[in-house]
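Hey L., structure's done. Input below.
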Amino acid sequence: MAQKYTRSVATNMVIANMIGTGIFTSLGFQVLSAEAGGIPDPFSILMIWLLGGIVSLCGAIVYGEVATRVNRSGGEYAFLSDIYHPLLGFLSGWISMFVGFSAAIASLALATGEYFLPVLNIPNDPLIKLGILEITPSKLVGISVLLIVLLIQLRGPKWGGVFQNVMTYVKLILIVTFLVIPFIFLGDYETSGISFAPAKESPDTIFSLAFAGSLVYVMFAYSGWNASTYIVGNLENPKKNLPFSLIVGTLVVTVIYILMNFVFMYVATFNELELQVDLGNIVANKILGTRIGLVFSLVFSLALISGVNAMFIAAPRVAEQIGKDYSLFRLLGKQSKNETPKNALYFIFIISLLLVIFSSFQEIIQYMGITLSTFSLLTVFGVFILRKREKKSGEYSSNSIKAWGYPITPIIYILVTLWMISFFLIDDPMVLTWSLLTMVPAVIIYYAT
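Output:
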């Protein structure tokens, strides 16, 4: 009997994919001065995280309809191929393999290394340095994480699903503890003294292009709300379980994100948070001291591993689907006896490993946020096309669901995403240029096969 992922695994996939590096790093870039591209207003920062949750929820609602109509594993690769043209789907799959998942896995692995470093109590000085190759202790931790998760996923969906559930529960327990501790130890440390009330400049900040630019970091943190759509073909009762996992997972994470950013800013000053990647360590050390803070460093590292595992569940399904559809990549489409896309797993592992070795965390974020948002935008717009096709053909699928709040939900997602992209068209067009250049090899390969 075929192994299927359960509702809990799908929901935990969404939560684990979303709660990753973004929430523990994005605020460090948002508290910068306006001149440096930040939005240094506590009220505006909380509003941008609320907006990110609303936009992600709108996207999740629409994706539920799109996924059940197309009804194939592979996420945007399957959706865009069916809605528009196989080339667009192939471009999406290409970006997913090399950027969407591999770069996200690499960023999670790098962040895990940063969080775990205080436990090792050694400096993060290069152990090996040859040209652009630089291996540090934090990178070695990241590489070890990749190997451990790969071995677990090779055991099959059952083992991968159990590990996902356990690690997600560890992550949620950690976060709840983290949210409560500042108020248990109130008086034992000096709070930031920040006011969260709307300031005189708050409206101008919220409607500024800098706010739109900062939204990229927020949407990067929220990326993963569509995670369970990548396993729709391997999910029990997808008509009920898919929308449940998307909506419930996104709602849970939205509440967590707003509360966590409140705690970060309540405990630490903007100067203490600026450009920091390990925000959790900074806050834990300030409240509990360095020695007890080490325990949190260890648990934060374990929590980030659940995100790596979730990505390793979703990513190979995209590569596997491409392998089934294109002969050049047919090796990626092969499954082992336990229904694990073994070759696809190895492929994602190798790309992620190279990114961990040769990249830095900050280089990955902006590029990922803008590139993935473009394909999500096209997918959400696709709901209008699918409904038009259905109306024209007169054929109604009993397996599909209807998106709540249509057409308001897709319109909200589309307008906010376009606003975010407009910031880069005006302020930093090179981000979009690099995104387009990444797709050139995919176009050549598509027409050559």
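The two ends are 35 Å apart (CA to CA). The chain has one domain: 7-448.

-- N.
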